[in-house]
Specification:
Number of helices: 10
Largest sheet: 8 strands, mixed
Strand content: 25-35%
CATH architecture of the largest domain: 2-Layer Sandwich
Shape: globular
Low-confidence stretches: none
Number of strands: 14
Number of domains: 2
Order of helices and strands: HEEEEEEHEHHHEEEHHHHEEHEE
Distance between the termini: 24 Å
Radius of gyration: 20 Å
Bound molecules: ligand DP6
């Protein structure tokens, strides 16, 4: 492990330290839940999300000459030689094949890849979204010697193209490439699905205050739960109404109507969890603390003390959506009533960036 890290640093000093991609997580307002085609990552429905700015994955690439990829995450080293079937290496293979079939010669480039999150993983802060967004963007940038998103676009990969490749690693990752409010449009076939910016971050400055109810990794992955959803008696009802709900959510965004959006957010999160709870293998992602905090949010709002609405991803943590201008005061209020809870104060952001390795931010 230490040796691989040394190699990483040595390569960097020889100019082979290539690129770092920084990708944010995103929080879905209308959830992607269920897949119509697992192989091609075609979702059961269209979804809509807000790209975050503070909860990010940073993934750096340095070339190596071992003939294999190496992936360092959480002080663990994986190699494509021993773990070919790991989802990271399967995705890298998919990207290599995609680039090769579009005429680029990259089959002999292998990388040592180091990745880290600024937030706890696997507990409902979309670590797979930021993780696969950074892995995809970083790999494309490293293969094309691009040190900025603009260069990557000149090399043939604009954000829309990158998003479509990233979603093959993890569906929600496709929505972490561009910033602001993003729609993943299901369309009529897997090939025609697309990921499109709906509204820029600067159009509406919303915050996502993430209240950590548990930082333990979830027992059932969303990938498995997407399959179980088809067994829920509630799922067909959900799918029959989802386009209408998506339309309302987009209207609420366009008119900056937080109350309308907020009511939808809560219904949508609870509906997704109801489907998970009643699937072919029932999955419960929330815990006692989640319920206590949700009840508190609703009670405080009724009393006129809180202008914020919650949503949940596939995990127990609460994402409290509010105007960014009110976020500081809301955080103070939470800290007062829930002093034990860890809080991440995040807000809408501008999407994935790439940097020359070593040239970043803190
Ligand atoms: C609850 O994107 O993690 O966060 O495509 O199998 O990797 P895979 O699933 P994933 O599912 C995310 C589900 C969700 C809702 C959402 O982000 O829309």
């Amino acid at each position: 492990m230490a040796e691989q890290l040394n190699d990483f640093i040595k390569n960097e000093s020889k100019g082979l330290g290539l690129v770092t991609a920084v990708s944010p997580a995103n929080i879905a307002f209308i959830k992607y839940w269920g897949k119509s085609d697992k192989q091609q990552q075609w979702p059961a429905n269209s979804s809509l999300s807000m790209t975050l700015s503070k909860s990010v994955t940073k993934t750096s690439f340095a070339m190596n000459n071992t003939g294999f990829d190496q992936f360092i995450f959480n002080n663990q080293l994986l190699t494509s030689k021993d773990q070919r079937d790991h989802k990271v290496f399967r995705h890298l293979q998919f990207l290599r094949d995609a680039m090769t079939s579009s005429g680029m010669e990259i089959s002999q480039k292998f990388f040592t890849i180091k990745s880290e999150n600024t937030f706890p993983m696997g507990c409902g802060i979309a670590s797979s979204a930021s993780g696969f967004a950074a892995l995809t963007t970083g790999f494309l940038a490293a293969c094309t010697d691009s040190y900025q998103m603009e260069q990557l676009e000149l090399a043939g990969f604009n954000r829309t193209t990158i998003a479509k490749l990233a979603l093959r690693g993890s569906g929600s990752a496709g929505r972490s490439i561009s910033g602001g409010y993003i729609e993943w449009v299901k369309s009529t076939s897997p090939e025609c699905q697309s990921i499109e910016p709906f509204m820029a971050a600067k159009e509406w400055d919303l915050s996502d205050i993430i209240i950590i109810a548990s930082d333990k990794e979830k027992a059932v992955s969303s990938t498995d739960a997407h399959q179980y959803a088809w067994g829920s008696p509630l799922f067909s009802m959900r799918l029959s109404q989802i386009d209408e709900k998506l339309k309302f959510a987009k209207e609420a965004l366009e008119t900056r109507d937080l109350q309308k959006l907020g009511l939808l957010l809560e219904q949508e999160a609870l509906e997704m969890h109801a489907v998970a709870l009643t699937g072919s293998t029932p999955v419960q992602y929330f815990n006692q603390k989640t319920i206590e905090i949700i009840s508190w949010i609703r009670a405080e709002r009724l009393k006129g003390n809180l202008n914020a609405w919650f949503t949940l991803d596939a995990g127990p943590n609460i994402h409290l959506i509010c105007k960014a201008s009110e976020s500081k005061n809301i955080v103070k209020k939470i800290q007062l009533d829930w002093p034990q809870q860890m809080i991440i104060e995040d807000r809408v952001g501008t999407g994935t960036q790439v940097y020359k390795y070593g040239e970043i931010y803190d």
